[in-house]
Amino acid sequence: MRQFPAAEIEQALDYGALADALAAAFASPQVEAPLRLAYDVGGADAPGHLLMMPAWRRGARFGVKLVNVFPQNGRRGLGAVNGVYVLFDGETGLPEAVMDSDALTNQRTAAASLLAARHLAREDARTLLVVGTGHLAPHLARAHATGRRLAKVMVHGRAPEKARALAARLAAEGLPAAPVEDLAAAVAQADIVTCATTSRAPLVRGDWVRPGAHVDLVGAFRSDMRESDDALVARARIFVDTRAGALAEAGDLLQAKASGAFDEERVEGDLFDLCAGRVTGRAGADEITLFKSVGAALEDLTAAELVLARVV
After folding, report:
1. I need a surface site. Which of 19, 33, 77, 232 has the fewest CB within 10 A?
2. Is 197 left (phi over 0), alpha (psi -120 to 50) or beta?
3. pLDDT given for residue 311 in this prediction
4. 85 with 171, same domain?
5. pLDDT for res 77
6. pLDDT above 90 (res 150)
């Protein structure tokens, strides 16, 4: 059984190739994947949650991502999210690989956003705004730059010093990145807005977004979180990674539904529909598109198989 640390996973995967692999997986789905399972496993003084995301392709391979979320780990100098991905042989049940789940998740999540943007963002989009400065943020910036010549990458974060550090890091990699503090002004300039935060209050507001923009919402993976306001959800054409996952967990949509600003019938398609050609992505230069991602176990299995194919 092979073990793959984060560095080896990042070296094996690139966003374009992984987006291609995800497109093929969503277009001809052979993977079965139930909704994410969540359990409260913490103690009275140390709350914690175990998330389980299994997926399988019968007779081929199956895998499961085990992720632990312990919010108070920061007091111990530890990260709040830790986990592993385990890949098994589908004929024998023998474990084939254990992989760092953070690296795998970051790569596949960014590649899924790239895949959606291929269908939903304007081809001439040149200005990107990254909202959030966590581990996923640089991956989203790099993914959206894949196959697209960006003229400007703006970085906004709750802590300005973190935004400056991330912008400097991206600039050192060759992206035209700079920090911004005025979020409303930055949104008004952006052709693509990608947002990866744990916010419980709207950050990107509908009256800020310019005609023709594509909004990529990656954070807010629980019903009590949101990154957009009702106005944006009401104004945009809505697409999701998977209907079942988004309509069960996406706070951006569930809270807008509760207020009357959104109805489930307004979801025009998910990645299965877009990749199979059952729905049209961007249909006009001035429309606003919104892609809401909560993550799918199909993406983890596809990414893990690609790592194994490229390294072994």
Report:
1. 77
2. beta
3. 86
4. no
5. 80
6. yes
